[in-house]
Amino acid sequence: MPTIKLTSVDKQYDKSSPVKAVDDLNLEIGDGEFMCLLGPSGCGKTNTLRMIAGLENLSEGAIQVGERLVDSANDGVFVPPEKRGMGLVFQSYALWPHLTIERNTDFGLRLRKVPKAEREERVNHVMKTLGIEQYRDRYPSQLSGGQQQRVALARMLAVNPEVLLLDEPLSNLDARLRLEMRAELKRIHSAFGTTIVCVTHDQWEAMTLATQIAVMNQGTLQQVGTPEDIYDRPANRFVAEFVGSPPINIVEMHDGGDAGLRQALRAHLQGDYAHGAEIASVGMRPENIQIAASPAAVSDSDFQRPMVVTAVLPTGGSWIVEMEDNGSQLFATTNQPPVLNAGDKGVYSLAPGAMHSFDGKGARLQPLAEEARATQNIRVAG
């Protein structure tokens, strides 16, 4: 499978407007990767997918698939969609209502005039892999949404595309079917080894499916990395706030909330960062916050503050605890029944290294310990 490389890609619909749907995008999608383009509505992720597919022309830049240049605004190169060796699964399943499931599945193979014996072998294999062979004589209207989604995937996989493009493929399914199809897509990627590019605004969909995630906002790429990188080492405040549920707690270090909390945070973080680093805001993930009835239950090395519980919200299997630290509202999550109830006083704490600090422009500040580990790893690798 080929590597997909986007170089300085722009998409601008109105030349008279400075606003770009995609702005100077540089992205490489490796051979066999499951890449999720993640971001809020209007961030440019679907435009990016459509440019890769050839459904949209570039305003600037180039797209290369393997050694082949498929689109270049400067060189006047444009390879049409049908000649790019890609399969696209739309948000709507786009199945032929008058064709059986088998005929829907082999539709692309018939267009390519694949011999009957080979066509039947490929269709049988992909239908069996996706668990839809028992529906081969039915019509799309006789299947559930999840089953129709499998048929749409089978139709694309049957033609053995070099790259499979998915445009929010699970958004029309209910919660249970989404969970099942996430596992199905994971298994498909493992079984077929196809390079997959998936557009989604669902952070958990991206976290559970992707080998690499590209987070976008307002047409620009914010960060590319593994799900662990995106969650544990967000490149900036936008990524930290977008990924995570409940969202990360943010404490502004210059205004808002309690001055005592800000001073306590500064004292706790002093020495963690290079001299002169300006910490404009601090993030604390709800699941990293521990709650106790008294300081005696908290390690001396942990950051700790007194608080009052304002609400306990059960979610089924876990709890969200809302608390207040002298005017600053914070949330914590726990998988165990909370030790405190609404109105109770207690303390909350975080283990060393469980905070994320950002500068005035929202960029993440790298702790000295993390920087030292990265340097050590480079030396060992070298």
Automatic annotation (TrEMBL):
ABC transporter domain residues are 4-243
Report the InterPro entries cross-referenced here: AAA+_ATPase, ABC_transporter-like_ATP-bd, ABC_transporter-like_CS, ABC_transpr_MalK/UgpC-like, Mo/tungstate-bd_C_term_dom, P-loop_NTPase
Keyword annotations for this protein, in alphabetical order, are: ATP-binding, Cell membrane, Hydrolase, Membrane, Nucleotide-binding, Translocase, Transport
Molecular function terms, GO-annotated: ABC-type transporter activity; ATP binding; ATP hydrolysis activity
Q: What is its EC number?
A: 3.6.3.-
Concerning Pfam families, the annotation shows: ABC_tran (PF00005)
Q: What class of enzyme is it?
A: hydrolase
Sorted alphabetically, the Gene Ontology cellular component annotations on this record are: ATP-binding cassette (ABC) transporter complex, substrate-binding subunit-containing
Signal peptide (from-to): none
The UniProt similarity line reads: Belongs to the ABC transporter superfamily.
Question: What is this protein's name?
Answer: Trehalose import ATP-binding protein SugC
> Lineage of the native species?
Bacteria, Pseudomonadati, Pseudomonadota, Alphaproteobacteria, Rhodobacterales
